[in-house]
Amino acid sequence: MREYIVAIDQGTTSTRAIVFTHRGRAVSVAQVEHEQIFPQPGWVEHDAREIWHNTQQVLDQAVDAAGLAAGDIAAIGITNQRETVVVWDRLTGVPVAPAIVWQDTRTQGRVDELAADGGVRRFAHTTGLPLATYFSATKIAEILDTVPNARARAEAAELLAGTIDSWLVWNLTGGPQGGVHVTDVTNASRTLLMDLETLQWGPELCEHLQVPLGILPVIRSSSEVYGEVTIASSVTGVPIAGILGDQQAATFGQAAFSAGESKNTYGTGNFLLVSTGEEIVRSRHGLLTTVGYQLAGRPAHYALEGSVAVTGSLVQWLRDNLGIIASSAEVEALAASVPDNGDVYIVPAFSGLYAPYWRPDARGVITGLTRFATKAHIARAALEAVAFQTRDIIDAITAETGVAIPELRVDGGMVSNELLMQFQADILGIPVVRPVSAETTALGAAYAAGLAVGVWDTLDELRAQWHEGARWEPAMTSADRTRLMTQWAKAVERTLNWA
Ligand SMILES: Nc1ncnc2c1ncn2[C@@H]1O[C@H](COP(=O)(O)OP(=O)(O)OP(=O)(O)O)[C@@H](O)[C@H]1O
Ligand SMILES: [Mg+2]
């Protein structure tokens, strides 16, 4: 019987495939990292072909490791790093340029030009997003204008463009031989090209942002059969039945389906989403309005999102650029070797500051240095920066909704860090709660796919599968909390007006 679901989690740093049972339990995992390409300051690229090869590899490995065959698998769900774009040749399947990754800031000039007429909130009412390099549209336009002939070839319908979900589905369903060109509403809601109300590409948006509508995928719900895998693999013939952007997938995997429910994911960056149900809430406090999920034939569910660009990647920076730790996990012991931050603060504004500030002119700082400061204080300041940034987002959400979040559901690679989780609870003054299954991103994609093919019938069944794994209670005095947040705010000030 077909009772297993395979999730592909194509992330910023790695690609995972996880096989889940109908109880939501992972039975096998395969993971491969891909190269992070930094050709110039502010530029971040991936090789889309490498990502596609890694996807095939982890799919085969995970299915083999579980001892399964295609006939055991009910559906495949895909979740992906969002906003990152690929433009490729419809006939050969070859990308015309490296994928431009969400963190890439090379399109700031385009953003400034567009914002000169109407400001950065020019398209915010329609799209839920401010104009920023973060989102897909200016990245697609950049490729079309810098690769010789690309714009003409796009106008002639010789090229296709999409986010990573589209790239993978097209390849899995045959590529040049009949590949299906689709995306889901959550990914589309990150491009600056989709109208939040109609859930369709906006012709005027495409015109202003200089992206030909004809190269874009068809927008579908997050949970329906888009096509079957036709390439030769361990999953040939299996339907692809769920697509969710990674942060929406984590929200779905945390069973935060209803208005007011939320989660915070600690990965490369941090992303806090709070559901607003079927209501579109337009932010006045620096949050994004985004699609949370849409089940087939049902109204879309929306969310407010606080996006923080640099959290886990700051730990990677300590490891790779400063060399003060050998692995990400080592940061915890190093930070714990000192009792406090020694008044050192790091604001990792490597790509400017995202929510709630949206300051592209900001750049990173380490402040409060004295001869007393050691690498241990730097490590501690890095972890604290993650928690302070989350506090800024929670404050914006409280200001926006007027409702305090009672406790924070967390997931992602950094939540194994106990020091960080305790400090997070301390600095928020609310409990932090981690579910048993920390692989919520992949689980959410599996849920979306399984719902589409009848492995599950209701959201309540999925809700019943959520179980608390660990909890951290706040233990800091409010005086200490206030002092730390005051210093943090001063440190943030020092990043501004730099670039
Ligand atoms: N024990 C730890 N303490 C602090 N940070 C950690 C720890 N373990 C992992 N990390 C950080 O967590 C991040 C990886 O988490 P995760 O795999 O959830 O990231 P991600 O954003 O989902 O990545 P991707 O986009 O590739 O899926 C890395 O940036 C890593 O530095
Ligand atoms: Mg991830």
Describe it for me?
By secondary structure, the protein is α+β, with helices and mostly antiparallel strands. Helix content is 33%, strand content 23%. The strands form seven sheets. A seven-stranded mixed β-sheet has the order 17-18-16-15-21-22-23. The radius of gyration is 22 Å and the shape is globular. The termini are far apart. The mean pLDDT is 95. Bound molecules: adenosine-5'-triphosphate (ATP) and magnesium ion. Residues 11-14, 81, 267-268, 312-313, 315-316, 328-329, 331-332, 412-414, 416-417 line the site of adenosine-5'-triphosphate.
How is this fold's topology laid out?
Blueprint: E1 4-10, E2 14-20, E3 26-33, E4 45-46, H1 48-65, E5 73-80, E6 85-89, E7 99-100, H2 108-115, H3 124-127, H4 137-146, H5 150-155, E8 159-163, H6 164-172, E9 182-184, H7 185-188, E10 194-195, E11 200-201, H8 203-209, E12 218-220, E13 223-228, E14 239-245, H9 246-253, E15 262-266, E16 270-277, E17 288-293, E18 301-308, H10 312-322, H11 330-336, E19 345-347, E20 365-367, H12 375-401, E21 408-411, H13 418-428, E22 432-435, H14 440-453, H15 459-463, E23 468-472, H16 478-493
Parallel strand pairs: 1-5, 5-14, 9-12, 15-21, 21-22
Antiparallel strand pairs: 1-2, 2-3, 4-7, 6-8, 10-11, 13-14, 15-16, 16-18, 17-18, 19-20, 22-23
Bound molecules: adenosine-5'-triphosphate and magnesium ion.
Class inferred from helices and paired strands: alpha+beta
Largest sheet: 7 strands, mixed
- Give the overall shape: globular
Q: Which segments are poorly predicted (pLDDT under 50) over 5 or more consecutive residues?
A: none
The distinct ligands, each listed once, are: adenosine-5'-triphosphate, magnesium ion
Question: What do the pLDDT scores average to?
Answer: 95
- Roughly how many Å is the radius of gyration? 22 Å
Record field, number of beta strands: 23
- Measured by DSSP, the beta-strand proportion falls in 15-25%
**Percent helix among the residues?**
25-40%
- Distance separating the two termini: 58 Å
**Strand line-up in the sheet with most strands:** 17-18-16-15-21-22-23
Number of helices: 16
